[in-house]
Amino acid sequence: MVDSELEVAQEAARAGGEIVARYFRDGVVMRSKESYNLVSDADVESEQAIVDVIRRRFPGHAVLGEESHQADTSAEHLWVVDPLDGTNNFAHRIPQFAVSIAYCRAGRPVCGVVYNPVRDDWFIAARGKGATHNGRKLYVDEHARLAEVLVGVGFYYDRGAMMEATLAAIRDLFHEQIHGIRRFGAASLDLCQVADGMFGAFFEYELAPWDFAAGQLIVEESGGQVTTCRGEPLPLAKTSLLASNGKLHQAMLAIVRGHHL
Fold first, then answer.
1. Do residues 181 and 198 make contact, with C-beta atoms less than 8 angstroms apart?
2. pLDDT greater than 70 at residue 200
3. Which end of the chain is flanked by fewer CB atoms within 10 Å, N or C?
């Protein structure tokens, strides 16, 4: 019954997004996990609103959320929720953030929604049924050479060895004459930009499941490929991530794998 789960994912994303958009308009006090890793009432309230919608329809399903909901990722029916991906952008009044919700069955994303509520942007996918952006079908970029594409990148909160590894990989990518690097600060939306053919590839050396579960499916349903930065299948756990149009995957792996910690 993927259609019913997808319907609930969209309803939940809208409920969470309304809260996030209200705080974005009216202002919010940010609290620090660290000075550069922020959380706010918007994150917490959005997650609770999302979980309330899911549990009204599927009370027996597990929910894994970034802020306050823990779950066994091996659960047969699992929802993976990021109530506000791109919190630092949100805090600095940059409208590049999203609510990300995926429904996973037996550890595999089956449907997913990434929703930017201030732009009313909807990225939606269901396994085997393709992916869309505001109703328009998505397809990855067709280029087969790194010298023909932009590459997206994310930085984990680590300011030490992982940051240096990311910068080293970027240096090597520039040596391949890529068109440029873009770092927009919301992995769920970065993955959607791979799906929409804006980026030829995107990588980050550490992401949590709520950052990528929906976006992974959106990329795959647009014809792309998603693995770890070592080329392994993506686990439903903290991991590195490489998403590409598929044609560039091996060329990207040759660079990002070499700097993986």
1. no
2. yes
3. N
Task: Measure the CA dihedral 252/253/257/258, to 10°.
Answer: -70
Average confidence (pLDDT) over 110-122: 97
Total count of domains within the chain: 2
Residue 35 pLDDT? 43
* CATH classification at residue 84: 3.30.540.10
| Residues 160 and 110 both lie in one domain | no
3-class secondary-structure state, position 203: strand
* Cα 63 from Cα 127, distance rounded (Å): 20
pLDDT in tens, 244-254: 999 999 999 99
- The three-state DSSP-derived secondary structure of 132-182 is EECCEECCCCCCCCHHHCEEEECCCCCCCHHHHHHHHHHHHHHHCCCCEEE
Model pTM? 0.94
